[in-house]
Amino acid sequence: MNLKGGKNEARISDSLFSESFAGFQALEVACWPRNGKDRAYGGTCHIDMNTLTDERAEAIQGLFHGSGLSISSLAYYPNNLHPDEETRTKIHHHLKRVIDAAHLLGVPLVGTFVGRDPWKDVAENLDLFKAVFPPLVSYASDRKVKLMIENCPMMYEWPGGSNVAYSPEIWDRMFEILPSPNFGLNFDPSHLLWQGIDHLSALRGFASRVFHVHAKDTEILPHVLGRVGIYGKGWWRYRLPGLGGADWRRFIAALHEMGYDGALSIEHEDPVWEGTPEKVRKGLLLGHRHLAEFLV
Fold it and tell me: How much is the CA Rg of the chain, to the nearest whole Å?
């Protein structure tokens, strides 16, 4: 298991590989289209698909190898079930380019969202998933890349969220539809915590499907919850590991027990430690310090 920096804060440049990040072993690299910011934390383009040539890929690999780092996955998290077919086609075109880039760079994983058509219920979205995702997973498999989905409900864009893959109940149905060993989870406990879902049981229940792990915590704010209720806003917020409700000692123990040996990604979305590069750096180091205590 290795610690890595968050995908939203890294940059593919010499400044990334400074002594400030000593102790990190891998990075998740975001690959949105250039100028493709579509939401909070979206639109980050660490590697531009438009300029990725064999020579550029070799240079990127050299930069990582020379620093003792690896790329744990490439990241592109759009709505793959977008209700507008033209938009959905563009999204899939770019996702395939990211899969091609992973193959070129020798990266084994690409992370994405399932997404959701907000005008359809869960059953109807699962029908849409059945039509959309098998060809995408097959495309990745043909290039020796595994496709994984993150479990964030994506409450940014729609009252019910714009990602239907938010709960273990729905994951069960998705893996029944698409049992391919090249389709799995980028498991993030923070999204389960505020939903009231037992993140440790979910982790153990899907051990064989966990390809990658986000280390992100959630803090519940009872004084806000008591006023706005569960349908209100602002009663929970994402935090760095150790600053929320997750028991990282037990969580990492469960990862060891199930034989997980992939990346443990500090996905930095903590509002307390954002705003300047220095605060972000300190936040990553705080998260690293907390998690490192439990790694062997």
Answer: 18
d(CA 10, CA 160): 30
pLDDT by position in tens, the chain (length 296): 555 544 433 333 334 444 455 689 999 999 999 876 667 777 789 999 999 999 999 999 999 999 889 999 999 999 999 999 999 999 999 999 999 999 999 999 999 999 999 999 999 999 999 999 999 999 999 999 999 999 999 876 555 568 999 999 999 999 999 999 999 999 999 999 999 999 999 999 999 999 999 999 999 999 999 999 998 999 999 999 999 999 999 999 999 999 999 999 999 999 999 999 999 999 999 999 999 999 97
Domain enclosing residue 198, as ranges: 2-217+245-268
pTM to 2 decimal places: 0.91
| Nearest to 294, CA basis, from 234, 257, 252, 265 | 252
* Cα 38 to Cα 104: distance, rounded to the nearest angstrom: 26
Backbone angles phi, psi at 154, to 5 degrees: 60, 65
Structural domains of the chain, count: 1
The CATH number of the domain holding residue 79 is 3.20.20.150
Q: Are 152 and 114 in contact (CB under 8 A)?
A: no
Residue 281 has which token pair?
């750096």
> Is the residue at 150 inside a domain?
yes
| C-beta separation of 105 from 60 below 8 A | yes
In the chain, the amino acid numbered 85 is E
Residue among 255, 277, 257 nearest 268 (CA) = 277
Q: Which tokens go with 141?
A: 């498999």
Asked if the structure places residue 89 within a domain, the reply is: yes
Q: Is 157 contained in some domain? A: yes
